[in-house]
């Protein structure tokens, strides 16, 4: 595979790290950004080419992952348009930018996939949602194969992409805050900070794995933990009195309202 990541920033580098540690058969991986000095000292191996020259990266690649800020997208697309051929697939991971906006610059004859991974792609645990334009439909299988080697994928209708961004991409930050709060609680209850974080992380992973592996609904697993008159239901009810579920849902909806303004 000949891949280019245009915009090797936070998300672009997370994708690159995941790819380099995966089973993907990479022939080359071009990483571009405006200022490359902070990448040139890194030892990524001979398959990784670092350049500020997007055109060179496109000419030597087939799968082009565009990972720039939303406000930078149109300028980048205009810059690379002249190098695009039928062999190319554009995969945009840019927040809030619709396929029709990309087509308005590149036209409808280029395969365009819109995707939303999250930063857990760096450890091959991303939840990645995907959709495509008409030309990109035939490339969805190969794009899905790439992202499946970096986590889990779901093909969705484009109208759900903003919601997917909030749940899965912003979701990493939301879950981090829940893990941090659990850590703070564990410290208050007597654990040192390192142990507290380990307890919080592994319990979070355990809860998630229980649902993934059993296919159960969360309440089925909660019922197994909540001993009648026990400490779990007492704590759980207090959390709900304080608005745990409600504040989480309100936060998701607020995030969603914001994303529609980006
Ligand atoms: N799915 C997720 O979990 C996340 C998604 N995002 C989305 O990913 C996109 C990138 O976000 P970040 O990585 O946080 O941004 P960033 O600012 O860290 O990275 C963007 C990179 O693009 C480069 N760039 C800008 N103009 C360029 C050009 N003309 N040619 C080549 N490179 C250029 C910059 O030098 C920078 O390295 C955004 O659309 C953002 O909303 C961001 C963070 C998480
Ligand atoms: O916060 C943001 O706008 C981007 C989109 C999802 C994750 N980061």
From TrEMBL:
Catalytically driven reaction(s): L-proline + NADP(+) = (S)-1-pyrroline-5-carboxylate + NADPH + 2 H(+); L-proline + NAD(+) = (S)-1-pyrroline-5-carboxylate + NADH + 2 H(+)
E.C. number: 1.5.1.2
Pathway(s): Amino-acid biosynthesis; L-proline biosynthesis; L-proline from L-glutamate 5-semialdehyde: step 1/1
Domain Pyrroline-5-carboxylate reductase dimerisation, residue spans: 158-260
PANTHER family, per the entry: PYRROLINE-5-CARBOXYLATE REDUCTASE (PTHR11645), PYRROLINE-5-CARBOXYLATE REDUCTASE 3 (PTHR11645:SF0)
Protein source organism: Lutibacter aestuarii
Entry similarity comment: Belongs to the pyrroline-5-carboxylate reductase family.
Protein task: Catalyzes the reduction of 1-pyrroline-5-carboxylate (PCA) to L-proline.
Domain Pyrroline-5-carboxylate reductase catalytic N-terminal, first and last residues per copy: 2-95
Superkingdom, taxonomy of origin: Bacteria
Subcellular location: Cytoplasm
Record flagged with keyword Amino-acid biosynthesis: yes
Swiss-Prot/TrEMBL keywords: Amino-acid biosynthesis, Cytoplasm, NADP, Oxidoreductase, Proline biosynthesis
GO molecular function, one term: pyrroline-5-carboxylate reductase activity
Subcellular location, principal: cytoplasm
Enzyme class: oxidoreductase
The protein, known as: Pyrroline-5-carboxylate reductase
UniProt key word Transmembrane: no
């Amino acid at each position: 595979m000949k891949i280019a990541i245009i915009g090797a920033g936070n998300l672009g580098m997370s994708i690159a790290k995941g790819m380099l540690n995966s089973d993907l058969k990479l022939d080359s991986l071009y990483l571009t950004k405006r200022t490359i000095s902070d990448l040139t000292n890194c030892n990524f191996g001979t398959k990784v080419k670092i350049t500020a020259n997007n055109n060179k990266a496109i000419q030597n690649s087939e799968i082009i992952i565009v990972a720039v800020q939303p406000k930078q997208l149109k300028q980048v697309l205009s810059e690379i348009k002249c190098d695009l051929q039928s062999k190319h697939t554009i995969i945009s991971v840019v927040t809030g930018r619709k396929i029709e906006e990309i087509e308005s610059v590149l036209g409808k004859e280029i395969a365009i996939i819109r995707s939303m991974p999250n930063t857990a792609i760096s450890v091959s645990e991303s939840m990645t949602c995907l959709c495509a334009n008409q030309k990109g439909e035939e490339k969805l299988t190969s794009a899905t194969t790439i992202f499946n080697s970096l986590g889990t994928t779901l093909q969705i209708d484009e109208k759900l992409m903003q919601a997917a961004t909030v749940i899965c991409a912003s979701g990493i930050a939301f879950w981090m805050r829940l893990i941090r709060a659990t850590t703070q609680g564990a410290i208050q209850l007597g654990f040192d900070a390192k142990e507290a974080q380990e307890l919080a992380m592994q319990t979070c992973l355990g809860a998630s794995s229980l649902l993934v592996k059993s296919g159960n609904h969360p309440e089925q697993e909660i019922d197994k933990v909540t001993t009648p008159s026990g400490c779990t239901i007492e704590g759980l009810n207090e959390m709900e009195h304080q608005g745990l579920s409600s504040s989480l849902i309100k936060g998701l909806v607020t995030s969603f309202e914001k994303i529609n303004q980006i």
